[in-house]
Amino acid sequence: MSMTHISFTSKLAADVALRAVLSQAVGLFVVLVPLSVLLTYFMAEVVGADAPYGAALATAALMGMGCIALLAGLWRGAYPHDRLGLCNVATAIRGAGICVLAGLTLVPNAVLELGWALVALATLTLFLDGLDGWLARRSGLHSRFGARFDVESDVAFSIVLAVLLWQADKVGLWFVAIGLLRPAYLFASIFLPALRIPLPDAYWRKCMAAIQMSIQVALLTPVVLPPFSGIIAATLLSVMILSFAVDIRWQWRQLDLSK
């Protein structure tokens, strides 16, 4: 068998796999987008929002942008498997939950009015964060695409929760910084070569992310009130800044050692 034939066969198999994954992703989005929009509208309507369609439109816009970004990533061949898998389905559902929560930031007093219903939605979204990684390892569908999908979902989730907590007057606007730490870190890496040095996998880093989001969800509960909520939030932000500082210090040391 010639190398040309082998190359053609491999390319054909890759194209077939790509089409299969894209079709699965499109099918998933066809279901998730209307469901997430309807859920946002329903929750906004329940609390008597003046314009529940505004929140629903915000969710629709965010879902649309997310779908386009994910499909573009798949189209570029960033995903190496021939099926989407339950792991990425779980992450996509989690993304839809984040979009619903983001849409509800346009509803005045959403945290106070929805109470435990909003906490339940945030808790489910958080649970899916742990489930998708377990499913990826169990199915052998772990990939850099999935890992990036998961990390960026963490960032979005953190920002949305911080905004909801600020709107509920449980924390100050300063707490939104907790969701901006990673974007700021990535932006700084454009100018600082040290920050482009790959970090080794570390279990403690994953634990910190899980603890951060868990505490943010706990702060949403009706039983956690100011000033206690502000003290917890300030402590959490300080710890997360310290965790980033630990990684940055390691990267600077690696840069010094390479000189």
UniProtKB/TrEMBL annotation:
<keyword id="KW-0472">Membrane</keyword>
<feature type="transmembrane region" description="Helical">
    <location>
        <begin position="55"/>
        <end position="74"/>
    </location>
</feature>
<feature type="transmembrane region" description="Helical">
    <location>
        <begin position="86"/>
        <end position="108"/>
    </location>
</feature>
<keyword id="KW-0808">Transferase</keyword>
<dbReference type="GO" id="GO:0008654">
    <property type="term" value="P:phospholipid biosynthetic process"/>
</dbReference>
<dbReference type="Pfam" id="PF01066">
    <property type="entry name" value="CDP-OH_P_transf"/>
</dbReference>
<feature type="transmembrane region" description="Helical">
    <location>
        <begin position="172"/>
        <end position="195"/>
    </location>
</feature>
<keyword id="KW-0812">Transmembrane</keyword>
<dbReference type="GO" id="GO:0016780">
    <property type="term" value="F:phosphotransferase activity, for other substituted phosphate groups"/>
</dbReference>
<protein>
    <submittedName>
        <fullName>CDP-alcohol phosphatidyltransferase family protein</fullName>
    </submittedName>
</protein>
<keyword id="KW-1133">Transmembrane helix</keyword>
<feature type="transmembrane region" description="Helical">
    <location>
        <begin position="231"/>
        <end position="250"/>
    </location>
</feature>
<feature type="transmembrane region" description="Helical">
    <location>
        <begin position="21"/>
        <end position="43"/>
    </location>
</feature>
<dbReference type="GO" id="GO:0016020">
    <property type="term" value="C:membrane"/>
</dbReference>
<dbReference type="InterPro" id="IPR000462">
    <property type="entry name" value="CDP-OH_P_trans"/>
</dbReference>
<feature type="transmembrane region" description="Helical">
    <location>
        <begin position="114"/>
        <end position="135"/>
    </location>
</feature>
<comment type="similarity">
    <text>Belongs to the CDP-alcohol phosphatidyltransferase class-I family.</text>
</comment>
<dbReference type="InterPro" id="IPR048254">
    <property type="entry name" value="CDP_ALCOHOL_P_TRANSF_CS"/>
</dbReference>
<dbReference type="InterPro" id="IPR043130">
    <property type="entry name" value="CDP-OH_PTrfase_TM_dom"/>
</dbReference>
